[in-house]
Q: What sequence folds into this?
């Protein structure tokens, strides 16, 4: 295919150093997918923004994760994918078939994992706000539950007195080791809302006692944060949990804590196609710094999200118009706050790489790089994917690609301006080398937007006869048990 040859010859005109061969291969695969998406009509006037997911890439990351831990321990390890990073059923199934489980934090996420066919034995429930109904369901299914706080432990005690459960139970602790570069995602700060704050006055002793009082409490959980945390800080958090488990087990005089859940949070490199840091590097560092973790006395649970998916997702959007404002060239595209919410509201923490393609989906390489804004479609001034970004001058009909958006981006639609959720398509090269797409999530239709916005009962606020509560009341006994 002529376009393939051209794609392989792609180079970035502005880069000073030649990209590493692996980067080149990643880019060639992506370029081929963009070309195919345009060729096969995924991106149209009515669907001007789509999301693509490289399924081989996702599989490779899952395999790399499993291999990294298998290289440092013979202990059983459950890699529970943090569903919040990409809450799409076919993605959960893909990861499950690749040997992963699911970490869920809401009834919706649990339902997604179950819809994907994930075995309850491979599901872990974490959340700071589990309701009695949620806990009851998890305990009935035998899903592992990590309690967040002493009140939740007491609630679980009461539920267990009512009905037996096979669920492994743990407690989340906050080692209070400090935050990373992104406050909103640092969960191990002195005042974080998550887990039992271990360094607070008397807290450690109370945690140890909580275990001694509850022989069923066999797991210990910590998750220090997501993105922006250096590996050393992640390791410090894991070491704190390990040392606490040792202390509990010494006090119990037996191996009561038999499983350590070390959370997720491996940071992702958003600056290039290089996948760094790697799972292998993290696992090796843990093995060096916390050797007892891997000596076989503890089973392990991990909860990685972003690092499994981010590099494998791409948002494509058509350039609708271009203009100049205050001498700044601006390309108005269809990808903005609805698919890149964090980048738009906190661009300093979440910069995204943008790649430019022409209307045929070929890499746009002609002409000098010009500083330009890449804007989204939403009606507020800050709806910008990139500001003053040097790119070949974009024209109407061109395609921009927002890279590394496989986690916490297109799967996290923000319904501003009633912009539709874009379609999500997995892609892989077929045996003949052509790119095949599979629908992960169809694009949201305008009719669906209307229905979800109360379109089924337009008179609700103006008709005296409209029922006050058109939905069935919650079961009155739902919280009677505690
Ligand atoms: C968000 C979260 C994760 C996943 O974090 P990533 O940065 O996506 O790896 C894992 N565990 C818990 C408890 C979380 O809240």
A:
């Amino acid at each position: 295919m002529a376009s393939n040859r051209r794609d392989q010859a792609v180079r970035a005109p502005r880069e000073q150093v030649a990209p590493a061969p692996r980067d080149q291969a990643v880019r060639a695969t992506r370029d081929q997918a963009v070309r195919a998406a345009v060729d096969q009509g995924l991106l149209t006037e009515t669907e001007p923004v789509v999301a693509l997911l490289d399924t081989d890439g996702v599989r490779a990351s899952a395999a790399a994760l499993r291999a990294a831990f298998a290289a440092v321990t013979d202990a059983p390890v459950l890699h529970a994918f943090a569903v919040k990073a990409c809450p799409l059923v076919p993605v959960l199934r893909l990861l499950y078939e690749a040997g992963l489980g699911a970490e869920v934090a809401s009834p919706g996420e649990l339902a997604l994992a179950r819809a994907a066919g994930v075995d309850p034995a491979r599901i872990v429930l974490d959340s700071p706000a589990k309701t009695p109904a949620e806990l009851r369901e998890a305990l009935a299914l035998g899903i592992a539950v990590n309690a967040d706080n002493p009140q939740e432990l007491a609630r679980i005690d009461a539920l267990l007195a009512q009905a037996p459960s096979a669920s492994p139970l743990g407690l989340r602790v906050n080692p209070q080791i400090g935050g990373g570069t992104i406050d909103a995602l640092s969960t191990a700060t002195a005042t974080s809302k998550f887990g039992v704050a271990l360094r607070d006055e008397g807290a450690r002793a109370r945690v140890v006692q909580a275990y001694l009082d509850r022989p069923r409490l066999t797991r210990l959980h910590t998750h220090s944060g997501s993105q922006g945390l250096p590996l050393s800080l992640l390791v410090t958090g894991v070491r704190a949990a390990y040392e606490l488990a040792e202390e509990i087990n010494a006090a119990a005089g037996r191996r009561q804590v038999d499983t350590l859940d070390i959370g997720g949070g491996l940071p992702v490199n958003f600056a290039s196609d290089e996948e760094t840091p790697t799972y292998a590097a993290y696992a090796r560092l843990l093995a060096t710094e916390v050797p007892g973790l891997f000596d076989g006395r503890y089973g392990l649970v991990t909860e990685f999200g972003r690092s499994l998916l981010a590099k494998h997702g791409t948002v494509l959007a058509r350039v609708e118009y271009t203009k100049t404002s205050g001498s700044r060239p601006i390309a108005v595209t269809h990808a903005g706050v609805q698919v890149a919410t964090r980048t738009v509201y906190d661009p300093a923490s979440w910069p995204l790489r943008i790649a430019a393609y022409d209307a045929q989906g070929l890499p746009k390489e002609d002409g000098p790089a010009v500083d330009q804004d890449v804007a989204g479609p939403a009606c507020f001034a800050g709806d910008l994917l990139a500001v003053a970004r040097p790119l070949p001058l974009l024209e109407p009909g061109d395609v921009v690609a927002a890279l590394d958006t496989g986690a916490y981006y297109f799967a996290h639609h923000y319904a501003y301006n009633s912009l539709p959720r874009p379609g999500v398509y997995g892609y892989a090269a077929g045996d003949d080398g052509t790119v095949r797409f599979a629908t992960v999530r169809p694009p949201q239709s305008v009719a669906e937007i209307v229905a979800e916005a109360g379109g089924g009962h337009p008179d609700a606020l103006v008709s005296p006869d409209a029922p006050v509560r058109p939905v069935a009341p919650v079961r009155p006994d739902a919280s009677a048990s505690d």
